[in-house]
Amino acid sequence: MPSIALSDSTTTASGYLLVLAVILPVIGLLLAFLLGGRRAEQIALGLMPIGLCLAAAIAFGVWRADGVLVYVLGGWSPPLGVALRADGFSAVMLVTTALIVTAAAFFARANFSTPLDLTEARAPLSFWTLLLALWAALNCVFLGGDLFNLYVALELLTFAAVPIVCLDGQAATLKAALRYLLFALFGSVLYLLGIALLYGAYGALDIVVLSQRVRPEAALWVAMALMTAGLAAKTALVPLYLWLPPAHAGAPPAGSAMLSALVVKASFFIAVRLWFHVMSPLPREAAMQILAALGAGAIIFGSVLALRQERLKLLIAYSTVAQIGYLFLMFPLAAGEHPWTDAAWTGGVLQAVSHAFAKAAMFLAAGLIAETLGHDRIAGLRGAGRLMPMTIFAFGLGGLSLMGLPPSGGFVAKWLLLTAAVESGQWLWALAMLAGGLLAGAYVFRVLAPALASANANEPSPRPSPGRGREAAALALALFAMLIGFAPPALFELIQIGRPQIARPVTTIVTSR
């Protein structure tokens, strides 16, 4: 006879799915190391459908239970033990990660496969193992309930992401990777110092336990400032964005897609955990306004810089700097109990997801354009639309979502954030969003206008057109960004599950541990 769990520190009925979601890519990573480059590709591709099914099962489990799924490792409840937790935000990010990693892996086969008649090389083994490591680290972040374990997951993420940037071994990408590593380590040090302060003050690092113990005192505010600064460096929030454009533009297309769509979201996700979960009992309006001000600055500054770029991949990378800014507008709009906070929370989460799909599609499309034309200079894109219509169509759909035009997921996300800003009287954030949308339209138009124009007669002959399968992978991601605009109400209900302001008892079944 099932019993009912009422605690965030008790394993729930489907909690074992959380463990499987973490260990599946870890097992793949170990097998890839043992069996070598050719097998590494097969292992990664073989595990993708299983991981996608697991992520979908977790999302369905959270939605059906209308509560947080929990797995307590070893049966030791926090603060002595460690708990994995999946709420609505976690579930949505797990599914998004599984879909984008799968599409990126399929796309990357053309660049990193090892046919039977060729000797295994370093780059394919590195890519497939790093892909599995990224996937494992992301799942750990989205399911982690302990701040130190989240630090470990962030480190694994960094040491998997940095080598992807310089897989080609060229001097420029090595320099970009080193700069990325420097910023990431700087962020790690700040985050770790904050953890030490929190543990010294409260004797716990579990998010739920901390939220019950925190008090408005100097140690807490210093710790939160250090950790938030560290996470901002890893997210590339203005003014700590300098590492992102060269790193994302220099990576191979599949790597750029994962870095821009997913890796920067991991540190943002932890910032949300800190300010909406750990700090939920305390007033924090001033800090939320500072984060939103940085976000608004990122929207304007990143968009203007994107508009000035001459290379397509750099333009997309700078637009990531801008789109990250929208995420931080969520902080003052979704805090507290107000009529607009539900919409702001949903808008922030949908912005993270729709941007992930749109940006992954655009980086894959940019990679195909560069391969076909032999360059990614925006001024040299004339005729690309006729040469590769599916690729340009995918890029355009992604651009629609970035601009926030209907019926894209970006439109729904930005509309919800905009209405929350207007209803709450925070007009400055509304103006920043409107200006960001106009600037996004301008830099997307800069790409589409020449791409859809007729080719010059003196242009060199393009290389063979990319395979339809790779174009389809980019288009599929762009279509996901659009389909979010038609999402059923169940998705909105799922996103709200686990939000601290509407915390409800977990009405799921306890299993034996």
Summarize the structure in words.
By secondary structure, the protein is mainly alpha-helical. 71% of the residues lie in helices and 2% in strands. It contains 19 helices and four strands. It has helices at residues 16-35, 37-65, 88-112, 122-143, 147-165, 171-202, 207-213, 218-235, 244-250, 253-278, 285-307, 312-333, 341-373, 384-387, 389-403, 409-423, 427-451, 468-483, 489-496, and strands at 4-5, 69-72, 83-86, 508-509. A two-stranded antiparallel sheet has the order 1-4. Helix 3 (88-112) packs antiparallel against helix 18 (468-483), helix 9 (244-250) crosses helix 12 and helix 10 packs antiparallel against helix 13 (341-373). The protein starts with a strand and ends with a strand.
Compact description:
The chain has 513 residues and is mostly helical. Helices cover 71% and strands 2% of the residues.
